[in-house]
Design brief:
Helix content is 30%, strand content 17%. By secondary structure, it is α/β, with parallel strands linked by helices. The strands form two sheets. It has a seven-stranded parallel sheet with strand order 1-10-9-6-2-3-5, with helices on one face. A three-stranded antiparallel sheet has the order 4-8-7, covered by helices on one side. Helix 1 (9-26) crosses helix 2 (41-52). Bound molecules: 2-amino-2-deoxy-6-O-phosphono-alpha-D-glucopyranose.
């Protein structure tokens, strides 16, 4: 695991942006695994800037998002579908038909999970998977206790995760109780993983991710077993290391 220590959120975003732009320049048909949450927003702004400056084109790129809430329509500003369009896809030249996000509104969720796996397989797997880090060690929406051999599946969200995400909703009651997420094993199949972490409130989590025991009780710890992981973390997040 390589750890890149940066000064702050902006530097973290710039560093991640360079890695992705480099990847796309080398391989225009890159398959990118994307994440939501506050952490990658600055990176997406940087990618838009690079596109506007004509330094990169997403014309041929493919994207797979990590997760989506169950029971929230795509036109709801809290859906990850809406988030991705708003924060990135609407502002770059990616073909929308090449952007995949699990659909949490279908009747047959098990089939959706299965189909999502097939799509990733057909794309010959993810070249570079972005990850944020949940306070309880979740990656995607894989909560503590999730099997390391899990594939795309439906999860019950932890109370702590719902509380952490309640800031985006009008009230805690409105935060969904279920989500669809790539599994841990799905994530681990990515060729390269880039985990972004910023801020003091993530300091305990990132310390446990890097130095803690590899355990299903702390899902992100599995990344210690992947041979191509880059953690880009700012000084505040690395305070306890
Ligand atoms: C959310 C998302 C994760 C994200 C994490 C951290 O619940 N499902 O993909 O990485 O929690 O979020 P944030 O970046 O806002 O701290």
């Amino acid at each position: 695991m390589e750890i890149i220590k940066v000064k702050d959120y902006q530097e973290m975003s710039n560093e991640a942006c360079s890695l992705i732009v480099e990847n796309i320049k080398e391989k225009p048909k890159s398959v990118l695994g994307l994440a939501t949450g506050s952490t990658p927003e600055g990176l997406y702004q940087q990618l838009i800037r690079k596109y506007q400056q004509k330094e990169v084109s997403f014309q041929q790129a493919l994207t797979f998002n990590l997760d989506e809430y169950v029971g929230i329509t795509i036109d709801d500003p809290n859906s990850y579908y809406y988030f991705m369009n708003e924060k990135l896809f609407n502002h770059i030249d990616i073909q929308k038909s090449n952007t995949y996000i699990p659909n949490g509104m279908v009747d047959n969720l098990d089939k959706e999970c299965h189909d999502y796996e097939q799509l990733i397989r057909h794309a010959k797997y993810i070249d570079i998977q972005l990850l944020g880090l949940g306070l309880n060690g979740h990656i995607g929406f894989n909560e503590p206790g999730t099997s390391f051999s899990s594939r795309t599946h439906i999860v019950d969200l932890d109370e702590s995760t719902r509380k952490a995400n309640a800031r985006f909703f009008d009230s805690l009651n409105e935060v969904p109780t279920k989500a669809i997420t790539m599994g841990i094993d799905t994530i681990m199949e990515s060729k390269k993983i880039v985990l972004l972490v910023s801020g003091e409130k993530k300091a305990d989590a990132v310390t446990r991710l890097v130095n803690g025991a590899v355990s299903e009780e702390f899902p992100a710890s599995i990344l210690q077993k992947h041979n191509n992981v880059i953690v880009i973390a700012d000084e505040a997040a690395l305070k306890k290391m």
